[in-house]
Each structure stands twice: as C-alpha cells, then as structure tokens.
Amino acid sequence: MDAKTGFFYLFSVVLLFAAFRVITARNPVHAVLFLILAFSQAAAVWLLLKAEFLAIVLVLVYLGAVMVLFLFVVMMLDIHIDKVRKGFWKHFPLAATVGALIALEMAAVLMGGFRGMDEPKAVALALDATGHAIPYSNAKALGRLLYTEYLYPVEIAAVILLVAMIAAIALTLRQRKDSKAINVSEQVRVRARDRLKIVKVAVTQKPAPLSAEDMVSQEKKA
C-alpha cells in the first residue's frame, strides 16, 4: 500500500467517525465541531482525487463562513435539549426509512458505479518552450472558463452578493426602539454634573407647632 492509499483510508475513517458523531452527539456545539471535522476530511479526500477547486471551495465557503456562522448561532441560542428530544420516537420510523433508502442508494453507487474506471491521467494542454507537456490543472481551467465565457454571470453574481452584504450590514445598524444599546462616545464624554443634579426646593408649608411633650423632651436633650 502506497502513501496515497494510506492517506485515503485515514481521511475516510476520520470522516466516517466525524459524520457518525454529528448525529449522535448530545451537545449541539460538539455536533457542529464534528461537522467541521467531517468537511475538512472531505476536502482532503478531494485533494487526493485531484479536485483542488472543490476542496478549496469546501474549505473557504463551508468551513470559513457557513460552519462558523452555524457555530455562533448554536452557541448564542438557548436550545433546550429535552424539548427537542420529545418527538424523537414519533418521527423515528420516517427518519429510519429515509436513512435506509439513502444508504441503499450510496451502496448501489459505490458497488456498481466505479467498476472498471481508471485513474484520470494528466492531459497536456500545450507545450512549453523546451517541448515538454504542460500538465492539466482543473482549477486553472475552471478559472479560465469563469473569467472568459462566463464573465458577465460571475460579475452579476458578485454584485448581487455585494448588495446582500450591504443590506445585512444596514439592517444591523438601524436603530430599534426596543433595543437598549449604549452610545459609547456619549458614555465616554459623560461628566459627573450630568449624572447628578441638586435642586433646591422651597418650603411649601410651615412646620407644625411643637406640643408640650416635645418641648420638654427638647429641653432635656439640651
């Protein structure tokens, strides 16, 4: 067994373990972390299959953006595990049926879909100055295709994503009436006399006349 095969089995075992722990972990944060581990191992397997572009997209998009967002959302939400588990056995037959169907489809693909297929060989696109063949790179070919034939769709998608980002930032910066946000600049410039103000109040009524007992008590104290 060569090094490539050994790495493939290593990444596959870790991937299967992480995927199993995603659905069996009791803590949602641990489940998200195991899902991140599963995506990283899938990206490594794609690198072994010479699909560099898919591996980079998986790392940048899912690990760098989507899963980090999921992790923050899960950590900020107050998820009650007991309430979530109440309907487990109610939906278990349907979930088991769907899981068994997906497992059978994957088994059919793995057992019969890849028989007789050889490893893709390097395809020469052109020759360099010395006459040697330049090996094929799918990432380079996809980049050349995206920025030549599909340049306008890529630019339109980039503009739409930019508008979505600006809209999301604008929604977070708008002032809400039910929010108790503190203006940091006003809090830094605050002074003591702005917090406490002493107001002199005039006497509105005369004190009541002292009784005989009060006068005697005051004389004794004096």
| Cα end-to-end separation | 108 Å
- Give the overall average pLDDT: 79
**Number of helical runs?**
10
CATH homology superfamily name of one domain: NADH-ubiquinone/plastoquinone oxidoreductase chain 6, subunit NuoJ
Shape: elongated
Sheet with the most strands, sense and barrel status: none
CATH class of one domain: Mainly Alpha
Unreliable residue stretches: none
What would you say the CATH architecture of one domain is? Up-down Bundle
Structural class comes to mainly alpha
The percentage of residues in β strands lies in: under 5%
Please count the beta strands (DSSP E, at least 2 residues each).
0
What portion of residues is helical?
55-70%
Rounded radius of gyration (Å): 35 Å
Briefly note the CATH topology name of one domain. Answer: Four Helix Bundle (Hemerythrin (Met), subunit A)
Order of helices and strands: HHHHHHHHHH
Tell me the layout of helices and strands.
Elements: H1 3-24, H2 28-48, H3 52-76, H4 81-84, H5 88-112, H6 138-146, H7 151-173, H8 184-188, H9 192-195, H10 212-221
Helix pairs in contact: 1-2, 2-3
Descriptive keywords:
67% helix; Four Helix Bundle (Hemerythrin (Met), subunit A); single chain; elongated; 10 helices; 222 residues; mainly alpha
Structure in words:
- The protein has 222 residues and is mainly alpha-helical.
- Among the domains are: 1-80, NADH-ubiquinone/plastoquinone oxidoreductase chain 6, subunit NuoJ (Four Helix Bundle (Hemerythrin (Met), subunit A)), CATH 1.20.120.1200; 128-174.
- The chain has 10 helices and no strands.
- It has helices at residues 3-24, 28-48, 52-76, 81-84, 88-112, 138-146, 151-173, 184-188, 192-195, 212-221.
- Helix 1 packs antiparallel against helix 2 and helix 2 (28-48) packs antiparallel against helix 3.
- The longest helix is centred in the first third of the chain and has 25 residues, at 52-76.
